[in-house]
Amino acid sequence: MAPGEKGLLIAVEGMDGSGKSTQAMLLFNWIRALGLPVHHTEWNSSPVVAHATKLGKDTKRLKPQTFHLIHAADFADRWSKQIEPMLEVGGIVICDRYKFTAMARDGARGVDRATIEANYSFASEPDITLYFDIPPEVGYDRIVSGRPTLKFYEAGLDMGWTLDPFESYKILQGKIKKIYDGLVAEQRILRVDAMGSVAEVQTRVRELIAECIDLENINPIDENDRRAEMIRLSSFDWSALEGEEGEI
């Protein structure tokens, strides 16, 4: 890929309990091992709106539209500081949740699609969006296993469908699943069977990546820069060896 050409944007979506985040991190580590410039970013991780989000959740004052706008602001900050700059230099960005999460979660709470599309209009369509699909009952069992209760907004109790957090969660996840299935039908996201072992699912992921995008068009990181990055990311404590004779 020549300097100035845009990089590759890979988005990862999925229901709660689908193993999406594990697969996204494995994908990130695989691409990094190939020596390619890659950045990983997660949903709702910008420090800009973190305090407002926490305050709103703690006081249970977040309405669907407010929740939607806070997440849009979070994403806009990450887009301008993390995603777009990496793409502009021809790198690869893996987004653990993209604007399709807003379509699914906010749409499930009644925010109309046109509003969501407009507020995320700055975000280009990914080169590929992997949607990790599992039966809703499987995701439910994975999330609630061993948990005495669910958080207020996680369960969708803000919508007033029922006072039972587990029943409310089922309703919310059912609505989210329906929207995701619609996005698959529209061919905006690509379904990945997320059932099976972690290794089996990762194999499917790599096969889909190979079919849909050409990683060979991405310029690899210079060997010296790659070595420096490996040292920086290493957990090995080099300082512990300082002053020891006969070492290194």
Describe what this molecule looks like in 3D.
The chain has 248 residues and is of the alpha/beta class. It has a single domain, classed as P-loop containing nucleotide triphosphate hydrolases (Rossmann fold, 3-Layer(aba) Sandwich), CATH 3.40.50. A five-stranded parallel β-sheet has the order 2-3-1-4-5, sandwiched between helices. The two termini are 38 Å apart. The C terminus is likely disordered.
Summarize the structure.
With 248 residues, the protein is α/β, with parallel strands linked by helices. It contains nine helices and five strands.
Q: What are the defining features of this structure?
A:
9 helices, single chain, Rossmann fold, 5-stranded parallel sheet, 248 residues, 5 strands, 11% strand, alpha/beta
Overall pLDDT confidence:
88
Strand content range: 5-15%
* CATH level 1 name: Alpha Beta
Q: Give the structural class.
A: alpha/beta
Query: Stretches where pLDDT falls below 50 for ≥5 residues?
Result: 240-248
